[in-house]
Design brief:
Topoisomerase I, Chain A, domain 4, 185 residues, alpha+beta, 6 strands, 4 helices, 2 domains, two-stranded antiparallel sheet, Gyrase A, domain 2, four-stranded antiparallel β-sheet
């Protein structure tokens, strides 16, 4: 029973880190990636649909993204959705595709990206601490119900704390590497 709680805790903490990494993909660093468009939705026959489900999205170089809709009547809808999303560039529509030209990031934009990144990292740490609390509460319940001894409970809680420390250290390391990547000119 204790092993199941610990395994579940590790999986949930790993999910928190995976979610943080996924969030990082929406941040702009020096080189443009198509993930900056991941949160953009387009009205496709009455349904809000992810941009990459209605068009091909390609980063042609370090500063340009080209969006080629599969249906030409979507060009203006895509252009409007991008403008509404306020991602820092104005879409250019040539009638067949939408092009986004990203200027080089200023130092202020880089600092703002670092702030967002740190906020995402803090959310991941809070999630890891919540996973720790949930696991410890489950262990304490087992102890209260006399399914494990006080010593087993203490040992399991110590193990959960070591796991929490390991994941917190990993988050700090990821944040440090990502900050260096964002601030690198």
């Amino acid at each position: 029973m204790l092993n199941e709680i610990q395994e579940s805790c590790v999986m949930e903490m790993q999910d928190s880190i995976d979610h943080m990494r996924a969030d990082f993909k929406t941040l702009r660093t020096g080189k443009v990636t198509t993930q900056v468009l991941d949160n953009i939705r387009v009205d496709y026959y009455g349904t809000m649909t992810a941009l990459d489900q209605v068009a091909s999205v390609i980063a042609t170089d370090a500063t340009t993204i080209v969006i080629s809709p599969w249906e030409k009547n979507l060009v203006s809808d895509i252009e409007g959705a991008i403008a509404k999303a306020n991602i820092g560039v104005n879409p250019n529509n040539d009638g067949e595709q939408v092009k986004l030209f990203f200027p080089p990031m200023t130092s202020e934009q880089r600092q703002e990206a670092v702030k967002k990144m740190k906020t995402m990292g803090e959310k991941a740490k809070v999630s890891v601490r919540n996973d720790r609390k949930k696991s410890n509460d489950a262990i304490k319940k087992l102890e209260k119900d006399k399914e494990v001894t006080a010593d087993e409970s203490k040992s399991a809680q110590d193990q959960i704390q070591k796991t929490t420390d390991k994941f917190s250290t990993e988050i700090d390391s990821i944040l440090k590497d990502k900050e260096a990547e964002i601030l690198k000119v």
